Amino acid sequence: MKQRGRGKTFKLRIEKLVYGGKGLGRLNGRAVFVPQVAPGDLIVAEETSRKSGYSEARVVKLLERGPGRVRPRCPYFGKCGGCDWQHISYRKQVEFKRAVVEENLQKIGKIKRPNIDEVIPSPSPWNYRNRVQVKVKGGKVGFFAKNSHSVVEVERCPLLKEDLEGIFPRLKELLPKLPTEPAEFHLYSSSKDELLLKIVFPRQFKRVELELEELKELLGVNLVGFGIYRQGSSGYPERIKFFGRDFTYELVGKFKFRVSADSFFQVNRFQVGNLIDRVARGAMEHQYMLAGDLYCGVGTLTIPVARYVHRAFGVEANFSAVADALYNKDINGLRNVNFYCRETEEALKIIRENGPDLVVVDPPRSGLNEKIIRTIATLPRLRRVIYVSCNPATLARDVALFYKYGVHMERAKVLDMFPQTYHVETICFLRKVK
Q1: Average pLDDT per block of 10 residues along the chain, 434 residues long
Q2: Selection from 223, 230, 162, 169 nearest residue 199 by Cα
Q3: Distant-in-sequence, close-in-space partners of 171: CB < 8 Å, separation ≥ 6
Q4: HEC readout, 138-194
Q5: What is the C-alpha to C-alpha distance for residues 264 and 246, in angstroms, rounded to an integer?
Q6: For residues 255 and 120, is the Cβ–Cβ distance under 8 A?
Q7: Among all residues, which ones are annotated catalytic?
């Protein structure tokens, strides 16, 4: 086809979706990656960049619709960088996520036939998020555009819990009351509909005069506390002052968790119970003496697992989360579990000294490293590892490393924690081969 603008154009049939959210097509055998397409789409594509072995392109025209295509619900889809797959039916999203996990385990993990024994869709693909970071720039309140720091102003977000969904205009009304424009608002709404707010300012800002009741009335939500923060050099906001209560509670089945403003809890309020249930079932399959949980947070997984083992412990670097976890073991009536606030090196020392036979890991998106894997895999009494991952590529890489040290994958479960995006949670069960 003829040239248009800066890149050549061509017809392209989309074969599948890949981790990262883009679609893959092939032009004369060359891989071409295109955002916001669906498998089966026939498009006119324009090449936007050419790399060694593949090209990036954009959609110029949709010629034929793939079988999973639907109309996006959100008017900001395609501009806002928050969603990747709103144009794909939810049933198809879940199918594609399973395929992505399987492909990564095959290609990166070197497992010929990965045993994915369960796929768990979100009970609702909308209004599931209990937490959000809202960007502010030049008076605009919304989210960053894809691969950009420009703010797309929004009025509603259908992924957010109902009390957060339409809060954006009210946040914009708050801006004139602040002496310095904030960089972000962080909001968290619990299962009890209690809301915590962080107002994150640049490093230099003027003193803020705000009352909790005034802010609660302005936002029109059940605000129980708000904090003044500034952007930290480490990438995490630094607390300056907090007003009201800086924690709330989550109820998940028979478990209760205190979650503080500076702690983390799973973002999909509909799926956290399924995550807890599947990990706890893994702990029930054998009579484990000691379970160790790395990256334990507020004890979301440690506490349910502790119900089914002789003893348990969790390790976490976030002091706020560990304080919550220690509180949570008491309110859940557990005496056989303990928590430690340690960075990675000291955490590995605790793992070695305790020598658990069951290890649970729920690391950040970057996954584990070989030192951590070797430490876990060479524990004398190790029988099983339950690996919870939000990145199938780093999970598959780590599964291959575990195999190197004699810990083999038995099965995996795909849990859709992030509908309308390419992100996916996987629970992987591995066993030590004697």
Answers
A1: 64 94 95 96 96 94 95 95 96 96 97 97 98 97 94 97 98 96 98 97 93 96 97 90 98 97 97 98 96 98 98 97 98 97 92 97 96 97 98 98 98 98 97 91
A2: 230
A3: 134, 136, 141, 185, 219
A4: CCEEEEEECCCCCEEECCCCCCECHHHHCCHHHHHHHHHHCCCCCCEEEEEECCCCC
A5: 13
A6: no
A7: 390
Tokens coding 406: 């004699």
**Distance, C-alpha 157 to centroid of its chain:** 17
Helices 392-404, 370-377: crossing angle, 10 deg rounding: 50
Cα 134 from Cα 143, distance rounded (Å): 6
DSSP structure string for 320-374: HHHHHHHHHHHHTT-SSEEEEE--HHHHHHHHHHH--SEEEE---TT---HHHHH
Say if strands 54-64 and 30-34 run parallel, antiparallel, or are unpaired: parallel
Q: Do residues 272 and 298 touch, judged by C-beta distance below 8 A? A: no
Answer whether 0.90 is exceeded by the pTM: yes
Encoding tokens for residue 379? Answer: 């524990």
pLDDT tens, position by position, 170-211: 999 999 999 999 999 999 999 999 999 999 999 999 999 999
- Which secondary-structure segment (H or E) carries 93? helix 90-107
Residue 302 and residue 332: Cα distance in Å, rounded? Answer: 12
Which among 179, 168, 180, 174 has a CA at the least distance from the CA of 141? 168
Q: What are phi and psi of 127, to 5 degrees?
A: 55, 35
